[in-house]
């Protein structure tokens, strides 16, 4: 990992932060090993920029057809119904570019990193690609090591320093930003990252969806992950 550079002119915390930090969050169809990624958010920042008044953040927010229905609770959290997701890109087409973005960082941060990055590594394996080779930092594990009492969710950790989601939904991009905020707080870095307007906007690749047909949706074909068309649309 490339360490941050501190020539004595910057704050102490700049010396122990990695140079390029990337926070990641995924929303999924559920919590089991066979579940798939629904959406992904990335927020990248250079440590040296954190000393400025408005550190520039690089954002990536994508949605995918997971090829299966979401569990009811998962759908309630991420907000994408099966009809909408059937019309989105499969994740496979984006994986090489995503892996390149992620592996360009010196450190990847996530809340419950084993779950988020485990899901991503399984998607890479399905596509015949190698797992991510990048150092990882889990804000959930780091918070637990502090011996704090009470809940350890991302929302609970962020409440400790007065930051919250904009609404009840778990957006991947907003949660990646929150994970980055949690990481900086855990590193005693007193930087107040701005809440960008784009954090709650739809994913950049969200495709328009035709009107949903009446009745039950047809079952998905085994292994299919392609948009569904409706006769007469």
UniProtKB/TrEMBL annotation:
Q: Boundaries of each Exonuclease domain copy?
A: 20-192
Give a GO biological-process term.
DNA metabolic process
Q: Which GO terms describe its molecular function?
A: 3'-5' exonuclease activity; nucleic acid binding
User: Is ATP-binding found in the keyword set?
Assistant: no
Q: Which UniProt keywords apply?
A: Exonuclease, Hydrolase, Nuclease
Q: Where is this region: Disordered?
A: 202-233
Domain of life, per UniProt, equals: Bacteria
Q: Does the keyword Membrane apply?
A: no
Q: Output this protein's name.
A: 3'-5' exonuclease
């Amino acid at each position: 990992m490339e360490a941050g550079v501190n020539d004595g002119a910057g704050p102490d915390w700049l010396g122990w932060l990695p140079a390029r930090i990337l926070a990641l969050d995924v929303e999924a169809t559920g919590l089991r090993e066979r579940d798939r990624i629904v959406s992904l958010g990335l927020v990248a920042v250079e440590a040296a920029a954190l000393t400025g008044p408005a550190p520039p953040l690089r954002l990536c927010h994508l949605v995918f057809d997971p090829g299966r229905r979401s569990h009811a609770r998962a759908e309630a959290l991420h907000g994408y119904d099966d009809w909408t997701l059937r019309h989105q890109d499969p994740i496979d087409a984006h994986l090489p570019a995503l892996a390149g973005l992620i592996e360009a960082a010196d450190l990847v941060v996530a809340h419950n990193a084993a779950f988020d990055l485990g899901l991503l590594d399984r998607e890479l394996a399905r596509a015949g690609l190698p797992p991510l080779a990048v150092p990882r930092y889990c804000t959930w594990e780091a918070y637990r090591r502090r011996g704090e009492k009470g809940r350890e969710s991302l929302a609970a950790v962020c409440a400790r320093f007065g930051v919250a989601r904009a609404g009840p939904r778990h957006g991947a991009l907003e949660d990646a930003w929150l994970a980055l905020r949690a990481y900086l707080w855990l590193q005693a870095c007193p930087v107040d990252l701005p809440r960008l307007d784009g954090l709650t906007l739809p994913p950049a690749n969200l495709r328009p969806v035709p009107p949903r047909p009446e009745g039950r949706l047809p079952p998905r074909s085994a292994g299919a992950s392609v948009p569904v068309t409706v006769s007469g649309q």
